[in-house]
Specification:
about 20% strand; about 500 residues; 16 helices; alpha+beta; six-stranded mixed beta sheet; 23 strands
Length: about 500
């Protein structure tokens, strides 16, 4: 019997391949960063070919280092940065341009025009999403409108669209030699093109954005055998596909309505399981598909998406060079007792949930001669916690539930200062699991369930174990004072761009 399941975790800054055993333990891993392109303020791009080559490298390296072979893998799952948009030629497999990353704001004029045309409520009702630069649909339209002759090629079926999951599956299953063109319901729900109820592409929305249906992948569940890998992993079934935040929800085993998780990565994403009926937010959150296992009904979520959290630490490292490596931020922040009345609102790509303001830009507020780099570092960490508080407040209003604790995962959860402050500013316990690579683990779970490696969700729940819990220690009056200052700083970011 094959003992392991592999998972490709293709994120905003890097690609990883992780192999898990039946207990959810990591037995092999490799990781490789890819270049970030910033052609102009507000524009963010990736090279999809570089991502594909990196994916090949990390798979080969992790197997070589661990001594495993493709024959040891029962299945392969994929999880990916969502909304990042690739268009490529069917006949050559070459992207028509760099991928437009989810953080990119170039589609603001498209979204604004749709709102002026009175289409805001239609998109929200059908897709559960606001009209925002975040999502793939406007990015597809921008590419088709700005590349001469591309729309005609798309109409002829020569141009294919995919988020990164679709791009990788197509290449893994043969590419120009019969590659499979699919995406799962979680990724499709992030395009602004899928009807949340029917789980299919919406013809009226496609017409509004002038996107040919021929260019779109077939929508499938998050857990089924889509096809088999070709030369890279011969005969290994590809059977799991989830957007990264939904994968983390599965990896955290949030299978019951009312359970929530928060992932701290490049951005920060909180998802609340709302069951098999979509809940449309009235408070700035997204309604999205959480997962769909095979023929079972889809499970929906409310999501609060924050664009810049871990990316702010990278910015401090790369742009200001206040720290040499990301892990230096915690000891630097600990050199001061508090934030020194400094607040950092990182609206580098506008504000996401719950504000959805593409006109906002980042600010540092409250600076005095007293402030030093320790206060800046602390304000950077606290920005993540404050943004999470804004999302949680909206989530509790929409769902009419009160969260008793928050499961957390992602790269930033190793930061003990941040986790304690997060618990303090929320006023609830924060719980870190034993295995923090929950995004890759969720993709592995989806793939393994499809082939019987795991028989049911009970087995997955039994794998979950707590590593550490932080409980609130901050006085409520101090919490309220800090948070009101944060809200004041957020107001100052708005109306910066026209």
């Amino acid at each position: 019997m094959k003992k392991f399941v592999g998972a490709i975790d293709q994120g905003t800054s890097s690609t990883r391949f992780i192999v898990f055993d039946h207990a959810g333990n990591i037995v092999a891993v490799d990781q490789k960063e890819h270049k970030q392109y910033y052609p102009a303020p507000g524009l963010v791009e990736h090279d999809a070919l570089e991502i594909w080559n990196n994916t090949r490298d990390v798979i080969q390296n992790s197997l070589r280092i661990s001594g495993l072979s493709p024959d040891d893998l029962a299945a392969l799952g994929i999880t990916n940065q969502r909304e990042t948009t690739v268009l490529w030629r069917r006949s050559t497999g070459i992207p028509v341009m760099h991928a437009i990353v989810w953080q990119d704001t170039r589609t603001a004029a498209i979204c604004d025009q749709l709102e002026r045309d009175g289409q805001k409520e239609l998109f929200h009702t059908r897709t559960g999403l606001p009209l925002a630069t975040y999502f793939s649909g406007p990015k597809i339209k921008w590419m088709l409108d700005n590349q001469p002759g591309l729309h005609e090629l798309a109409e002829a079926g020569e141009v294919l669209f995919g988020n990164i999951d679709t791009w990788l599956i197509w290449n893994l299953t043969g590419g120009v030699h019969g590659g499979i063109h699919v995406t799962d319901v979680t990724n499709a729900s992030r395009t602004m093109l899928m009807d949340l109820s029917s789980l299919d592409w919406d013809g009226e929305l496609l017409k509004l954005l002038d996107i040919p249906k021929k260019t779109l992948p077939r929508i499938v569940s998050s857990s089924e055998v889509y096809g088999y890998a070709s030369s890279l992993l011969p005969r290994v079934p590809i059977s799991g596909d989830l957007g990264d935040q939904q994968a983390a929800l599965v990896g955290q085993c949030c299978f019951s309505a009312g359970e929530a998780k928060n992932t701290y990565g490049t951005g920060c994403f909180m998802l609340l399981n709302t069951g098999t009926d979509p809940v449309h937010s009235q408070n700035g959150l997204l309604t999205t598909v959480g997962y769909k296992f095979g023929q079972e009904p889809a499970v929906y979520c409310l999501e609060g998406s924050i664009a810049i959290t871990g990316a702010l630490v990278q910015w401090l490292r790369d742009n200001l060079q206040i720290i040499d490596k990301s892990s230096d931020i915690e000891p630097l922040a600990r050199t001061v007792a508090d934030n020194g009345d400094v607040y950092f609102v990182p609206a580098f790509s506008g504000l996401f949930a719950p504000h959805w303001r593409s006109d906002a830009r980042g600010i540092i507020a409250g600076l005095t001669r007293y402030a030093n780099k320790g206060h800046i570092a602390r304000a950077v960490l606290e920005a993540t916690a404050y943004q999470t508080r804004e999302v949680l407040d909206a989530m509790q209003l929409d769902s009419q539930t009160t969260l008793s604790s928050l499961k957390v995962d992602g790269g930033m959860v190793v930061n003990e200062l941040l986790m304690q402050f997060q618990s303090d500013i929320l006023g609830v316990p924060v719980v870190r699991p034993r295995i923090t690579e929950t995004t890759a683990l969720g993709a592995a779970y989806a793939a393994g369930l499809a082939v019987g490696f795991w028989q049911n969700r009970v087995e997955l729940i039994n794998n979950w174990a707590q590593d550490k819990q932080w409980t609130p220690t901050m006085d409520a009056s101090v919490r309220d004072r800090y948070y009101s200052k944060w809200k004041k700083a957020v107001e100052k970011t708005m109306n910066w761009t026209n």
